[in-house]
Amino acid sequence: MPPDTVSTPGGALARQFWAENPIFRQVLGICSALAVTNLMFNTLLMCGGLIWATSMSAVTVSLMRRLIPQRVRMITEVLIIAVYVIMVDIAMRVFFPEIHRVIAAYVGLIVTNCIVMGRLEAYASKNTPFNAFCDGLGSGLGYSLILMAVATVREVLGFGTIMGYPLPARELWWHQWTLMVMPPGAFFVLAGGVWIARWFAMRREAAAAQSPPAPQAAPPQQGGAE
Amino acid sequence: MILMLADTLAKEAAGQNLLAIFFAAAITDNILLTRFLGMCSFLSISSQMRASIGLGLAVIFVTACTGAINAALYWFVLIPLERYGVPASSLQLILFIVVIAAFVQLLEMVIERVSLGLYFALGVFLPLITVNCAILGANLFLINKNLTVFEGFVYSAGAGAGWAVAIILMAGIRIRLKTARIPAALEGPGITLIICGIMALAFIGLSGLIK
Amino acid sequence: MRELQIVLIATAVVCGVCTVLTVLLLLAERFIANYGRCTIDINQGARRLEVRGGSPLLGTLMEEGVFIPSACGGKGSCGECKVKVLAGGGPIAPTEAPLLSDQQRTANLRISCQVKVRNDMAIEVPPELFSVREYQAVVERIVDLTHDIKELRLKLIEPGEIEFTAGQYIQLKAPPYAHNEAVYRAYSVASPPDEKDHLELIIRLVPGGICTTWVFEHLTEGHTVSLNGPYGKFRLSDSDREMVWIAGGSGMAPFWSMVRFMKAHNIARKCTYFFGAVRKRDLFLVDELRQLERELDWFTFVPALSGPAAEDNWSGETGLITEVVDRHIADGSNMEGYLCGSGGMIDAAVKVLLKKGIAEDCIFYDKFT
Questions:
Q1: Is the ipTM of this complex over 0.85?
Q2: pLDDT at site C197
Q3: Is the Cβ of B168 closer than 8 Å to some Cβ of chain A?
């Protein structure tokens, strides 16, 4: 795994979005959002909230990183996330009241999402605000990419719609797959995604292993200058 | 306030299907398998049986206790304040988190002092719990469902028990899985997710038991 | 007015709940988790620490300046912070169990980040770790060796002496300045170990480097600095094989320490020191090393320039340092290689040495990162 020391904003964004995508790489942080993936629009709202919370709390933590005492660091970070999540909650209640009724509890649960917390701990608490923002944005986008993919599969197979619009001529060929509407569907779709992603990753590694690296010498020593 | 307390007690005396609340929370509405909460620690810890049992028991205890505390906080502090326009739904999130974090820390200290054996069996898993969304989730759901303090306690105990059952079952299955031949790319999280899906189907299948 | 009232009430509620919980926690810490003062005996009385009980052993030791290496930072996942606990460790925690083999258990090894200090303890740590400490030193002299390399001479004040072997490195702390946080950077010690109360470091300016920029632009003579160490396994082997030393730039440091150490202790082991630079202005300590070459019949110094300028009037070796080594060494089968410098130089030099027949386990290096 590349170290968390990438210091260019673009690098931080790209790393979190693709190379180190938190869901496929570590299967982290699916808790709060997987439950809403049976409808694409709900997922989209949820992802928007998550991106907002991840990137903004990253900026805030980064700005405050020298002010937060070590002993209370975790709880302070949680409270910072909570503030942004509450903003999302209020905005959603105002603009999408019906959807809010369904997903309110899950929005609140963004607070305990492992990805948000993990990026704050691993990156934002050590880097400058703009880099932290990009890192948070990248994680949020990478996460959304996968959730949206899962939601697309589930909505198409479960409801025969895309973003609530029916598929063309679906009476003719489409048949409802109820499992996809139910929670187990999310598990199966995500497992399939992880399977495909891992398979590609392993094939790439196998290809890389074909060309042998230069001979390594001596027990590795550490130290030296900068 | 006193009126509300009396009302609560009266309702509880009537024994409002407490058993149904418990079993719905534990089985058909399983917080892990149907709401996907607490997946992170579930995926990593379920590879060890002993740790799964310890973590499961710790989750039951913490969820039940914080459920009761937070329900009380909600009904006896936040709701009376709504009269003054204070939005309970915004404050509850922050307060619940703080209460859970403090409770977990307190519990860890107490257990460590009382019995080192118990600490090693349960206490060492407590720090993992602070960020476990299953607990905050159960706390938030019981508010959504408008449950009273005692009902909330029963509900969150059920939710915790459901989580514990799921992780212990999964740990058992994963022990067997060690000898099974799985496609290399599916090993670890992949196959665990598939088993979760099958378990979720089984748990949902029990919904006919409870009306 | 109403909004203000709402905000005030909301704030009061949150603060009230937080205060109650904080008080509860503080009371609990005071009465429940208070383990009083404990004594930790290290290496059978070599050092006795008086510490506050209740924290993990790893962190407690670190606060007292005994640095146990740990890769995961005390999360109990890497298993590198093993320490021999002779007494007072309590039962093995389940979080330690997967990281300890049966042999390690019978040898009383424990994972120090998972063992809490609850009572008096007796432990054993490897002496070299035990000697890693935090030092305060005052900058006695800063000399420009070249246009981008400085020599720092530090006088130790607290503790006043350091034990190390030639080739080891220390970590210098650059305090927070401008927008940078405090960082530690590793530098090999250039002075010989016999001079226990002084340390010399050779530091090359890395453009944009936090620590080197601080050394070059902010540090002046008379400043007090913090450092810890010594670390590292880069040192002379116990054999008497002929040695090839290869260095570039500030990679000079460990060899400058070694050669003076060998001279002081009459270790007459045959040794050729190849030092590479681009132009004459990048060379330093050449006169001193030539002087040593004349005094010591076992020591040969070969400076080489890869791109001498016309005005350099250079009559010595030219070419990449690896090419020079290639020309000078015929058969390396009974030699040892010691390398210090940038990663690229070391990788290239290792290849040459392997080609010359030096065994892989006889090549030691200290790579700059």
A1: no
A2: 92
A3: no
**Domain residue ranges in chain C:** 37-129, 133-231, 242-367
Q: Please give the CATH number for the structural domain made up of C242-367.
A: 3.40.50.80
Give the residue from chain C lying closest to B48, CA to CA: C98
Please, which contacts does C212-219 make with residues 24 or more away whose CB atoms are closer than 8 Å? C212/A225, C212/A226, C212/C185, C214/C174, C214/C175, C214/C177, C214/C180, C215/C150, C215/C152, C215/C172, C215/C174, C216/C150, C218/C177, C219/C139, C219/C142, C219/C152
C37-129: CATH, from 3.30.1330.20, 3.60.10.10, 1.10.150.130, 3.10.20.30: 3.10.20.30
Are C32 and B116 a contacting pair at CB < 8 A?
no
Residue count (chain C): 369
For C253, the closest chain A residue by CA position comes to: A224
Task: State if pTM tops 0.90.
Answer: no
CA–CA min distance B38, chain A (Å) = 6
Tell me the pLDDT tens digit for each residue of A71-108: 677 788 888 999 999 999 999 989 999 888 888 888 88
Q: What is the DSSP letter of C56?
A: B
Q: What residues of B are in contact with residue A31 (Cβ under 8 Å)?
A: 36-40, 133-134, 137
* Single-letter amino acid code for the residue at A97: P
Residues with Cβ within 8 Å of A96's Cβ and at least 6 positions away in sequence, in order, are A45
Half-sphere exposure of B122 (CA within 13 A, CB side): 20
Residue in B38, B185, B196 nearest the CB of A187: B196
Tens of pLDDT, residue by residue over C281-329, are 999 999 999 999 999 999 999 999 998 888 888 888 899 999 999 999 8
Query: Which chain A residue has the Cα nearest residue B182?
Result: A195
C367/A226 CB distance under 8 A: no
Provide the pLDDT for residue A20.
64
Candidate from A150-154, B68-72, B111-115, B173-177 with smallest mean pLDDT: B111-115
**C chain contacts of residue B73, beta-carbon cutoff 8 Å:** 17
Written as six digits, the tokens of C37 are 């003062």
Residues of B with CB under 8 A from a CB of C: 48, 50-51, 54, 73, 77-78, 81, 84-87, 90-91, 94-95, 98-99, 102, 105-106, 109-110, 112-113, 116-117, 120-121, 124
Beta bridge mates, B168: none
The CATH superfamily assigned to C133-231 is Translation factors (2.40.30.10)
Helix (H/G/I), strand (E/B), else coil: C256: helix
- Arithmetic mean of pLDDT over chain A: 78
| Distance from C-alpha of C344 to C-alpha of C325, rounded to nearest angstrom | 16
Q: Which of A215, A218, A221 is nearest residue C361 as measured by Cβ atoms?
A: A218
- State the pLDDT at residue A34: 78
Task: Establish if A218 touches chain C: CB-CB under 8 angstroms.
Answer: yes
> Given CB atoms, is A128 within the 8 Å cutoff of chain C?
yes
- Show residues of chain B in contact with C2, CB under 8 Å: 85
Distance, in Å, from the CA atom of C302 to the CA atom of C300, rounded to the nearest integer, reads: 7
Judge contact between C57 and C116, C-beta under 8 A.
Answer: yes
Residue of A nearest to B184 (CA): A199
B166 pLDDT above the threshold of 90: yes
Residues in chain C predicted with pLDDT less than 50, given as ranges, are none
Residue B120, min C-alpha distance to chain A (Å): 23
**CB A66 to CB C354 under 8 A?**
no
Residue A32 confidence (pLDDT): 66
Residue A216 is encoded by which pair of tokens?
């390594």
